[in-house]
Amino acid sequence: MFSLFWVNVHIALNSIKTQLLRTILTVVIIGIGIWALVGILSAVKALENSISSNFASMGANTFNIQRYDFGVQRHGGEREKVNPIISYQNIREFVDIYEYPYTQTSISFRGTRAAEVKYGSEKTDPEVQIYGINEHYLENSGIEIERGRNINIFDVQNNNKVCLIGSDFLKSLFVSEDPINKTISIRGVKFKIVGLLQSKGSTFGNNQDLKVLIPIQVARSIYTQARINYNISIMVSDKALLDNAQDEAIITFRNIRGLSPVEENDFGMERSDDLINRVADITGVLETAAWIISFITILGSSIALMNIMLVSVSERTREIGVRKAMGAKNSTIATQFFIETIVIGQFGSILGIVLGISTGLVIAGIFDFEFTLPWAAMIWATIITFLVAIFAGSYPASKAAKLDPIESLRYE
Known about the structure:
Blueprint: H1 2-18, H2 20-56, E1 62-66, E2 74-75, E3 78-79, H3 88-97, E4 103-115, E5 117-119, E6 122-123, E7 128-133, H4 137-141, E8 145-148, H5 153-157, E9 162-165, E10 183-186, E11 189-197, E12 202-203, E13 206-207, E14 211-215, H6 216-222, E15 231-236, H7 242-257, E16 268-271, H8 272-315, H9 317-325, H10 330-367, H11 375-401, H12 405-410
Parallel strand pairs: 7-14, 9-11
Antiparallel strand pairs: 1-15, 1-16, 2-3, 4-7, 4-15, 5-6, 5-10, 8-11, 9-14, 10-11, 12-13
């Protein structure tokens, strides 16, 4: 049985060689459909992994008070509702009032995204982000220390000129030396480096490793522009208390804002797991689009594959007659054409998978996403091309098997 199978495979490969151009075009058409499926799903999976890992690092027991909700709608480039900024007075009152058990509150703001950092005679391009933080910022944000120590409560209360730097500074200012305890300058103010942050990569071009974190009061003395917007992050050590802690935070901040019971919140509230769910919804839509595009393309390729096999049956009518005259059964003839169709389909599948993985790798490399092999997409691609081959080859195989051997031998 297996020897007959391999004989049919050998015949199929020889047949493919005799109609190479048509076979290549059909393989390319099938490959494009699989490419669309595997490539888009690879890119979507890499995007989902990158964003989810960034949000998940915050912890499922963390929520933020911010100026706007994540999904606030814009119309004509403007927001439907303009919320007031979260001011320094707001965060001071919140820290003083909010005392829910088993929670810790992080406060922060971004002073600038275009700072120039100097170390001796060396300096960075003006693209460094500077954040003012308190002692809970790292833990609430899921950021870890590579070397050195964190900014502590004494640094914050005493306005110590200390800082934490991102890992990308090892590529510019500190290529061949340890940055810990070195002194850098920001806007003429000198800071002692006490910690090096672990690499976080970048998301949508926002480099997480080219930033400097300094105590919040020191940052306020350097960046004094009006209308600075602050962020509040609350971590709950016991996840069972998360909902109650969030409700208490909303009530507290509404009182700070002076809102009446009938007024809507003029601030946003986001939980890390809510953001992950939204990302999953978005990527789900993209995956659906990938399947639709692939289905349309593969449908076209199945028609092309059926056409090439029908042409092959017509061109090999005499060959079929000879084989039948020598005792070949109808099932043997049908199996031969089925195998030819499946071989062409699997060539297309391999081409599409290779192109799809390559596309996913390129996109992940450009946007610095975390790439993983889309095993599910690859398995489905193989199954789909097999089913397409069966669908496209069934009629040509049936037609070949039913040919009259006498008429076939007379065919020229």
